[in-house]
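Appendix B, record 7
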Amino acid sequence: MPSEQPSTPTLHRHRRFGSVTVLLNARARRAPGAAAKVRAQLEAAGWEHAHLRVLADGRGLGVALEQALSERPDLLVVGGGDGSVTAAAHRVAGTSTVLGVLPLGTANDFARTVEIPDDLRGAVRTLVEGHVVDVDLGRTGDHSFLNAASVGLSVAVTERLTPRLKRRLGPLAYPVATLLAYRGTPGFAARLEFPAGDHGTLELEDVLQVTIGNGVRHGGGNLVGPDASIDDHLLDVYAISRGRLTEHVSIARFLKDGRFVEHELVHHVRTPAVRIHTDEPMPVNADGELVATTPGTFRVERNALHVLVPTTSRAATWDGPDLPGPGGDGSHGGAGPRLRV
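C-alpha cells (predicted):
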C-alpha cells in the first residue's frame, strides 16, 4: 500500500532509459498539436533518442503496441485517453518495460489516480524526472482494466459517450451521458460470489449498476470507494440498487469523494476477486470499452505493471523485484529499479 519509501536510485537525468518509444493516438480529444510539443520538449530534455510515432486512427493502436513491444523498449509512452492507456497496460503487464503516460483524453482517470499532471508540459517532465512504481491491474477473462469494470448503467453511458460529445463538452460529457442513459436503463438481478471466501454471496434484485474498481477513479473522476488504491491488491466492488430519482441524485452528490458507499441503496465490499452472475448475459464495460459479457470473474493482479510517476506521487510504491540492469541479473542494490542506460 502507498507509504513513505526510499526513492528510486538516482540515474542520469537525460539517459535513464536506453530505448524509448512514444505512441500518440491522434484521435484523442487533446491530441491535436501534441506531437510537435512532445517532440520539442523531449529534445529539450536531451531525449533525442526517443522514437515518436503518431497514430492517425486509434483502431491501429493494438498493432502499433505489439510492434513497439516486440523491440522490448525500456520505456513505452502512450499519449491518449484511458482506453489507449489500458490497451498498453494489458500488453506491458508482466514485462520489464516501464509504462509512461501522456494524458490526452477526456477523463484521464488513470493519470489522475497516479498523480501525473494534466498539462502536457508537466506530463513530459514526469517522463524525464519521475520515478518508477508498480501498480495493480484488474483482469476479467483475457481483458484488463486499470480503473474499473462495470455492468449495467455504465454500459449505456458508454454507448452515449460519442467522440463528438466528448469533443464538445469535455469532462462534462460524462454526467450528460449518464442523464441520457439513466431513464432507459432497466434493473437486473445479480449474484456476487467471492472466490477468496472473504465475504458471503450477495443476492441482489433490481440492480442499476455493479462496478469493480481496481484503481481510484473512473467515469470522469468518480471514486470507486473512499479507501480505494491502485496499490492495495484489492478490488472495490459496489452495487447500486434502483430507487427513486431523488435517491440516485443523493448518491451522485457523493461520487467524487466516495461517501456514496454509505447510502442504503449501495452495497460495497473490498476483495481480491469476485464472480458476477446476472439473470441474463449482460455486456461488461472495462475502462470505456465493451469487452465481455456476464457471467464473469474479476480479479486483481498485484504489482503487475511498472509505471513512471512524479516523484511527489504517493499513489503507489515500488515493491520489487528489481528490473534487470546492464548485466541482466538485476543485482544492483538500492530501493528501486535500475534501468538500462
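Remarks on this record: The first strand starts at residue 20 and ends at 25. Confidence is low (pLDDT under 50) at residues 3-15, 323-341.
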